[in-house]
Amino acid sequence: MFESLFNYPTVLARHVEGPAADERKRFLLHRANAGAARGTLLRIARELLVIAKNINVTTGKAIGRHDLEAAATKWARHQQRRHRSHGSRWSRDLFLQVGTDWFRFLGRWQEREAAPPPFASLIHDFVHFMREERGLSEATIRNRCWHVEKLLAYFMRQNRSLAGVSLCDVDAFLNSKGSQGWGRVSVATCAKALRSFFRHAEMRGWCAPGIAAGISGPRVFKHEALPVGPAWADVHKLIDGSNDGKPRDIRDRAILMLLAIYGFRSAEVAGLQLKDVNWERDIIIISRPKQRRAQEYPLLQSVGKAIIRYLQQVRPRCSRREIFLTLKAPFRPLSPGALHFMVSRRMQALQIESFHHGPHALRHACAGHLVAEGFSLKEVGDHLGHRSAFATRIYAKVDLKGLQEVGNFDLGGLL
Q1: 215 CB burial (10 A radius; 0-12, 13-18, 19+)
Q2: Where do the DSSP E strands lie in 238-289?
């Protein structure tokens, strides 16, 4: 590994004969397999040698944050005294970053264990109940736990125990979230999570009875608004706007087609792996966590070409199995948040009118287009991966053709 990075014999010998050469070489190979550029590997290799000279890594002992920070500060002051840097911050930060990654790779990093909150056992018990007895999805469990943790932390700051909490206290918490800018839907979602938790807490005897039945969030009417998505012509404009041939455009074009044509959720596209595209059968396989099954979709020729172009021309060569990765090292999968930023930025740049600017707006646009093309709501729901027809009923509002047929229906002599 060192031979491929350093050309001068004296520099090469310094790295080969330096302390912990084998450990440094293994980490460099790991970063190279992850797709790190040669310049990045050179910077890491130089810093690894510095770290190995300042910290004895051959003892087999774990390295803690305190030890690493002390060595980093000593090295930064040394660099500053020798006028190799104007300040100590850059040298210290690089030492800490590379050192943390290296020791964590070696399994020698001593993580700083944060003390669990006093209510950790309650959350753990609630998670076990939702997962084992209710059979809820992991996404639902995470969402409910997030809201419950906010509530319990709120009570902890007031030195209140769960046993002494009343319904008025829960209402005060929900009102505080509304005053902080939470919307009606967010507060209603929080109230639903808290009702579930207090039902469990009452069953366990953790709190006074009757709290769960009294928790009420703001009223949210079902299907009170139309699906908020751009017009289908604007969707074509959005996809065509990512056809400039730049690496980012090639990657984003494939993502936009998956979001708009198939109506995939952002998390589904972010989690799409190489094995999920079957080129022999021309299908895409999407995992549906709530249904606990996988759903197959036909791979359209246009979408297949966009994915192949990205894989051949843009996607970095690394050990990651996710399809869509960042363009710069260290290469990692795109997050749902990154997909939201990408779609929103492109929609706003093209001045596309839509109440929301994000991947879910394209999902709404896909559903609206299918309804306009004459597909039944059952077919639209199957395409979107809905668990029941109730989730698809909202798109009946945009079935203008069907509504017109109802309006033109002649009741004859019945009136």
Answers
A1: buried
A2: 277-278, 283-288
Residues 6+ apart with CB under 8 A from 154: 173, 176
Give the tens place of pLDDT for each residue, 170-218.
999 999 998 888 888 889 999 999 999 999 999 999 999 999 999 988 8
CATH code matching the domain that covers 232-405, chosen among 1.10.443.10, 2.120.10.30, 1.20.1250.20, 3.40.50.300? 1.10.443.10
Q: Are 247 and 309 in contact (CB under 8 A)?
A: no
Q: Tell me, what's the pLDDT at 395? A: 57
Are the C-beta atoms of residues 169 and 160 closer than 8 Å to each other? yes
Residues of the chain with CATH 1.10.150.130: 120-214
Strand, helix or coil at 285?
Answer: strand
Angstrom distance (rounded) from CA 280 to CA 398: 37
Residues 298, 300, 302, CA angle at the centre, nearest 5°?
165
Longest Cα pair distance anywhere in the chain, in angstroms?
A: 102
- Indicate which residues carry an active-site annotation: 265, 290, 360, 363, 386, 395
Please check whether residue 381 is in contact with residue 387, taking contact to mean a CB–CB distance below 8 angstroms. Answer: no
Q: Tell which residue, 287, 269, 254, 242, has the closest CA to residue 339.
A: 269
Cβ atoms of 322 and 333 closer than 8 Å: yes
Residue with tokens 């991966």: 385
Q: Please work out, in degrees rounded to the nearest 5, the angle formed at the alpha carbon of residue 266 by the alpha carbons of 271 and 299.
A: 70
* Percent of the chain residues past pLDDT 90, beyond the cut: 31
Give the DSSP H/E element, type plus range, for residue 294: strand 293-298
Looking at the DSSP bridge assignments, the partners of residue 283 are 278, 298
pLDDT by residue (tens digit) across 321-363?
999 999 887 788 998 889 999 999 999 999 988 777 889 889 8
CB contact set of 205 (below 8 Å; sequence gap of 6+): none
Task: Give the architecture (CATH level 2) of 120-214.
Answer: Orthogonal Bundle (1.10)
Q: How far is CA 366 from CA 65, 348, 380, 384, in A?
A: 50, 19, 9, 9
Instruction: In the chain, list all ranges with CATH 1.10.443.10.
Output: 232-405
Q: What are phi and psi of 77, to 5 degrees?
A: -65, -35
d(CA 51, CA 255): 41
* DSSP structure class, residue 322: B
